[in-house]
Amino acid sequence: MVDDPTAWEGHYAFASHIGMELTQWASGFAQVELPIVDHIKNRHGLPHGGVHASLLDTAMGYCGCYTGDPEAPQLCLTLNLNVNYIGVAKGARLIAEGRRTGGGKSTFFAEGEIKDDFGNLIGQGTGVFRYIKKQQV
C-alpha cells in the first residue's frame, strides 16, 4: 500500500476542484475521499448524484492502475459505469473504495462502494475500464 498516494499521482484539476483525495492505493484497490461541503450539494442539500458517480469512477479506475512504480504510471479510460444509489450520507465525508474484480491485458472490471464516515452505505457501482498509454490521452 502506498503511504502517500498523492506523492505518486498528484492532483488533477477536477479532483482538486471538488476536493477529492486519493487516500489509499495498492494493487487491485483504491480509496478516495471527499468532504461533504456546500459546493458538491444538490438543491436538496445532499451530495449530488454526479459526485457519487465521480467518486466511484475514480476509485474503480485507480484500483486497476496501480503499478508499484511511480516512474511507470498506468492510465485507463472508463468504458462502462453503473451506479446504484442506496442511502443518504449522515457524516461529514464520503469514502469510496474500488476493487479490481477481473480482466485481462487491455481491459479490467471493478466494483466499488461509497460510505460516509459513520459507515453508512451510500452507493455501489461496477465498471469496465480500458488500459491506455499516456501518449494516447
Structure report:
The structure is a single chain. With 137 residues, the protein is of the alpha+beta class. It has a single domain (5-136), classed as Thiol Ester Dehydrase, Chain A (Roll), CATH 3.10.129.10. Helix content is 19%, strand content 42%. It contains three helices and six strands, in the order ααββαββββ. A six-stranded antiparallel beta sheet has the order 1-2-4-5-6-3. Strand 1 and strand 2 form a beta hairpin.
The CATH H-level superfamily is: Hotdog Thioesterase
- State the name of the first-level CATH class: Alpha Beta
| Overall mean confidence score, pLDDT | 92
CATH fold assignment: Thiol Ester Dehydrase, Chain A
Which strand order spans the largest sheet, edge to edge or round the barrel?
1-2-4-5-6-3
Number of domain modules: 1
Gyration radius, rounded: 14 Å
Task: Please tell me the CATH architecture by its name.
Answer: Roll
List keywords for this structure.
single chain, 137 residues, alpha+beta, Thiol Ester Dehydrase, Chain A, six-stranded antiparallel sheet
Helix-strand blueprint:
Blueprint: H1 5-9, H2 13-18, E1 21-26, E2 29-35, H3 49-63, E3 75-85, E4 93-103, E5 107-116, E6 121-132
Antiparallel strand pairs: 1-2, 2-4, 3-6, 4-5, 5-6
